[in-house]
Amino acid sequence: MTFSRGIGLFFGKIIKGIVAALALSRVHPNVLTFFGLVINIWAAWLLVALATAVQTYAAGFAGAPRRQIGMVSPDMTPQTN
After folding, report:
1. How far is CA 77 from CA 24, 25, 32, 63, in A?
2. d(CA 7, CA 3)
3. How far is it, in rounded angstroms, from Cα 12 to Cα 2?
């Protein structure tokens, strides 16, 4: 048995159990689709929020050397109003 076949068998049992439980609970497939859509939108929003936070954090580090240079040589510091 290959590694990928083992993964397929393992998670296949889990998915079949979930499907059987949902079939017994008589949840309408459209309800499951709607909740899947909501979860995907929420995950996309979290991904964008994380990427924005990382970029903001990185931008702070990128500006640090310019501020340090400004302490030594004020003419190299960017002008602010």
Report:
1. 68, 66, 56, 11
2. 6
3. 15
Collect all residues with Cβ–Cβ distance below 8 Å to 9 and sequence separation of at least 6: 1
How far is 42 from 36, CA to CA, in rounded Å?
10
Render the burial of 8-30: b for 16+ CB within 10 Å, e for the rest: eeeeeeeeeeeeeeeeeeeeeee
Q: Which two tokens stand for residue 71?
A: 């302490």
* Cα-to-chain-centroid distance, residue 38: 15
Write out pLDDT tens, residues 4-54.
999 999 999 999 998 889 889 888 889 989 999 999 999 999 988 888 877
